[in-house]
Amino acid sequence: MASHQELRFEEDPQLTEVMRLRVQSLQQRGQKRQDGERLLRPEESVYRLDFPEQKLRFVRWGVRLPAPGRLSVVGTSQHWTPDLTPLMTRQLLEPVGLFWRSPGDADGDAVKCFEADTQEFGERIAELAKIRRVMFFLFAFEDGADPTNIDCSITFKVLQ
Q1: pTM reported for the whole predicted model
Q2: Is the pLDDT of residue 9 over 90?
């Protein structure tokens, strides 16, 4: 019988800081980003997902937003190290996982998302897990969302 594995997205403060320093360095020097380079925005942070198993099938997202706000999750298709190579826009996965709660939502209401997009995104993550042990993501916190009170995980079925 196959088991399920829930993996939590963990913030990577070191990579986030390196990405912020890149933006700051360009601003201080008055330089522009490289053609196709994707710079970290102020409301974004870098998160990582470690895969202890690599034969996975996507099951579901687990996103908790206790207050109104919006969380965008963008995956990267490359094993990228910002200190050595810049993040390029062509390395970003489509579709984006978009999760939100509206101001009128009751406490017990489920977090909203574009189900087809999040399903496809989860399946792409499972496919990429076959060839890597870690993936990096850009989390954007908007419309009142705050990284201190968001919990985000993804559940996979472990295949034999």
Answers
A1: 0.91
A2: yes
